Each structure stands twice: as structure tokens, then as C-alpha cells.
Amino acid sequence: MEFYLACIFAYLLGSIPSAVLVGKAFFGVDVREHGSLNAGATNTFRVLGKQAGTGVLLMDIIKGATAANLVLLMSQDSLEWTTMTYKIVFGVLAVVGHIYPVFAGFKGGKGIATLLGLVFALDPVMALLCVVIFLVVLLSTNMVSAGSIIATLSFGVIAALRHGEAEPVLQIFAIFAMILVLYTHRANIGRIIKGEEKKIYLFGNNRK
User: What is the mean pLDDT of residues 24-33?
Assistant: First the structure.
């Protein structure tokens, strides 16, 4: 029962529509009606600016990390798997909640920031390496989607180098993450191939 309650809570936590809440509460704007129509941090950056985008980004990261760490609230006697396995299960449910939020008509963001929060809960070093890769690609291409895709695809290699075969569930999760990022960014990949992907500039004004 404890496990199932944690699963439900993890999904509900991920379902909190950070971008929608910030947009409506502080700007009177529903980001789902502007820009890419996506309820995520990147669209918030474009529509509402860096301050709002950064706030949403941090909130989404915290959702993933908090959900993953729900295992710390469970009775240790009830644990049948490794702590990492529970973190992955709860964190993935939060990511699913972010992509398909019950509180926002099941139309959310692409889950990358929440996924990053989960990775931080698993291993901060792995998360920071992914962030570095993301930033390098972003600064090189000015495309958040490209940075997200390449950083996530690199995660499997990073996980293997950091943990080897000690945590096989981590490699399964890495495969899941790669499939997820390709699925949620399928439209972006098409635009990248056509040279039509929207760009975002860290040191410029992205609001339109």
C-alpha cells in the first residue's frame, strides 16, 4: 500500500503545471496559447522571459528530484528493490505526470527538466555532466531541443562509465530516457532536419 500511494503521489507531483501556474499567476498569460503552445520551461522562456523561464525550470527539476526521493519516506522494512530502482520508478512517474498532467488536461511539457531532477536524485555527478553537454550543444546551436536530445542520448554512456554493471536498472532507465526524448521531440527533430527549428539565446532577448 505504501508503494502504491507513493506512485500516485509521484504522478500527481509531476502533474503540477509549473509553466501554466507561473504564467497565469504572475503574467495573466497561459503559455499553452502562445509560442510553441507547450507547457514547459523553454516555451516559458520564449513567451515570458528569462526570469519566468528559470523559475519554471527549477520547479520542474525539483518535481523530479522530490518524486524520486519519496523512497526515503518509505519504511525500510517494506523495500524489496534497491533504492535506485524505487527512485527511478517514482521519478519516471513524475515525468509521465509532467508530460500528461491530470491538472492541465493531460497536455504538459516534454519532461526534460523533470527527468533531469530525477537524474540529480540518482547521481548529481551524472546530472551535472548531462547539463554540461546540454549547455555546450545549446551554445553551439542555440537550440534547446538539440541540447536536450544529445544530452539525454549521452546519458547511457555516462551511466555506464559511472556505474558499469553494478546497477542494471540504470541502463534500462537510460534506454527509456533515450526513447522518451526521441518521442517527445519528434516534431523538433523534423524541424531540425528542415532547418526550421526555433532558436533560443542565453544572452539575448527571446521574448516576442
Answer: 95
Domain boundaries, the chain: 2-194
Cβ-count burial 73-92 (b if 16+ within 10 Å, e if not): ebeeeeeeeeebbbbbbbbb
Q: Closest by alpha carbon to 35, among 23, 44, 26? A: 44
Q: Whole-angstrom Cα distance, residue 90 to residue 67? A: 6
What whole-number distance in Å separates Cα of residue 5 and Cα of residue 204?
A: 44
Q: What is the pLDDT of residue 207?
A: 57
**CB-based contact 15:98 (threshold 8 Å):** yes
205 pLDDT band (50/70/90 cuts)? low
pTM beyond 0.85: yes
Residues 36/39/45/47 CA torsion (nearest 10 deg): 60
- d(CA 66, CA 46) in angstroms, rounded, equals 27
CA distances from 38 to 66, 79, 98, 182 (A): 23, 37, 11, 16
Residue-wise pLDDT for 43-66, tens only, equals: 999 999 999 999 999 999 999 999
144-163 and 112-122 helices, crossing angle to 10°: 20
Residue 164 confidence (pLDDT): 84
> If you search the block for the grid coordinates 509560442, which residue do you land on?
35
